[in-house]
Specification:
alpha/beta; 4-stranded mixed β-sheet; binds inosinic acid; Adenylosuccinate Synthetase, Chain A, domain 1; 10-stranded mixed β-sheet; globular; Adenylosuccinate Synthetase, subunit A, domain 2
Length: 445
């Protein structure tokens, strides 16, 4: 007897952020897309922002996988994503207006959960409420969310009874009946948070979202079977992680995290494709660190150096426009994320941003309050707040590296920086981003 599908070496790849997001995953996914057939989002929602630059065109994508820019690829939004249908359709229209085809090449899971307007109101109302209440010395409990309704939508998914999935939008009566109950509950909750909005109009909302469902209908599939069918046909899948490992609900700097498994842990639950089908996991890290929103950040630079990195790296949120907090590269954090995600290699992005610094620092350990040091990351906000980074100092370089054609062509100090990362993390650097263009990506391993 033969078992044709028992060979799991499918050529599938996962791309995942190893820091707090914004590692430039969009560009790496874009480069890897050429070698894959199907590009899949498995987690998060419109809180993510992936920027891809093609020639003089700059695309900022939030829900649609960046593989959409290739006409011959299929893009899938998996069941683990929370979808704001209006944002999704807006994004599709925006792409079409720029000549990008969005039709049968975009598939949407019937089991992805829907972000409704009240989720965004709940998100903002809770953040505003928390921002006005101090909780001891640490300030407020506000997380600094993107206010895209991500947390409340995932909360409904886990709550079950109050959730709406994409498939529910395709049945107008069913949707109306559910929303009539849910909206009564939500109105009361919003009022309790001090939002003096008029009661939510369930029937109007049901009509609006059923109409959106009609527009999305051509894209809707059972994405789990769809992806397994693709694999049986020998099509190679690229899993595009949104957000990043240190924002993972289970493995990140809780509670300053997002509400999904954005490490590779989310792939199996968010697509139905088991991790055993993924041979290659490329962890993406910037050459330095950034973070948006609240939460501990041991290597943060609240000084001129941090401002310089922010300016040179154009470190302002793709989704919210907020200035990002910037700091030195934290390899304790990166090594931990690589371990949790099962990374088989690294892509180091935004390397050119570090050109022009006399010296560069990388954090290789943390000093704890009791004076001892550890090389282990602490994925708990309260405990991580108390650590002091232990740095190694490296020499900087001043030559431009944007035109470098390979790793050997980089200045010696730049090569040393990459060598140190490989030695400390214990993984090969497979790609180095030296500029925003597709072509400014060195394939190094
Ligand atoms: P939420 O995902 O909107 O609930 O936000 C939770 C936290 O995750 C906030 O600190 C956000 O700034 C952060 N966050 C969510 N998505 C991203 C991302 O794609 N890049 C960077 N930070 C993010």
């Amino acid at each position: 007897m033969s078992f044709p599908h028992s060979n799991r070496d499918t050529g599938n790849t996962a791309v995942v952020g190893l820091q707090w997001g914004d590692e430039g995953k969009g560009k790496i996914v874009d480069v890897l897309t050429a070698g894959h057939d199907v590009i899949v989002r498995y987690n998060g929602g419109a809180n993510a922002g992936h920027t891809v630059v093609v020639g003089s065109e700059r695309y900022a994508l939030h829900l649609i996988p960046s593989g959409i820019l290739y006409p011959d690829k299929t893009c899938v939004i998996g069941n683990g994503v929370v979808v704001d249908p209006e944002k999704l359709l807006e994004e599709a229209e925006g792409l079409r207006a720029r000549g990008v085809a969005v039709g049968g090449n975009l598939r949407l899971s019937d089991r992805a959960h829907v972000v409704l307007p009240y989720h965004k109101e709940q998100d903002a109302a809770l953040e505003d409420y928390l921002a006005t209440k101090t909780a001891g010395d640490r300030g407020t409990l506000a997380i600094g969310t993107t206010r895209r309704g991500i947390g409340p939508a995932y909360a409904d998914k886990v709550q079950r009874s109050t959730a709406i999935r994409i498939g529910d939008l395709l049945d107008r009566n069913y949707l109306r009946e559910r929303l009539r109950v849910i909206c009564r509950l939500r109105t009361a909750e919003l009022q309790a948070l001090g939002v003096s909005a008029a009661p939510l109009d369930a029937d109007a909302l049901a009509e609006r979202f059923a109409d959106l469902g009609d527009r999305l209908r051509p894209h809707v599939v059972d994405s789990v079977y769809f992806l397994h069918d693709c694999q049986k046909e020998g099509r190679r899948i690229l899993f595009e992680g949104a957000n990043a490992c240190l924002l993972d609900i289970d493995h990140g700097t809780y509670p300053y995290v997002t509400s999904s498994n954005c490490s590779t842990a989310g792939i199996h639950s968010g697509t139905g494709v088991p991790g055993t089908n993924i041979a290659r996991v490329l962890g993406i890290m910037k050459a330095y660190s950034t973070r948006v929103g609240a939460g501990p950040f041991p290597t943060e630079l609240n000084n001129e150096l941090g401002a310089r990195i922010r300016e040179r790296g154009r470190e302002f949120g793709t989704t919210t426009g907020r200035p990002r907090r910037c700091g030195w590269l934290d390899l304790v954090a990166v090594k931990y994320s690589a371990m949790v995600c099962g990374a088989t290699g690294i892509a180091c992005t935004l390397f050119d941003v570090l050109t022009g610094f006399d010296e560069l620092r990388i954090c290789t350990a943390y000093r704890l309050a009791d004076g001892t040091t550890t090389g282990r990351f602490i994925p708990d906000a309260k405990r991580l707040e108390g650590v002091t980074p232990v740095y190694e100092t490296l020499t900087g370089w001043s030559e431009t590296i944007r035109d470098a054609s390979d790793r050997a062509a980089l200045p010696a100090a730049a090569r040393d920086y990459l060598d140190r990362i490989e030695a400390i993390v214990g993984l090969p650097i497979e790609m180095v981003g030296v500029g925003p263009e597709r072509s400014q990506t060195l394939v190094t391993a």
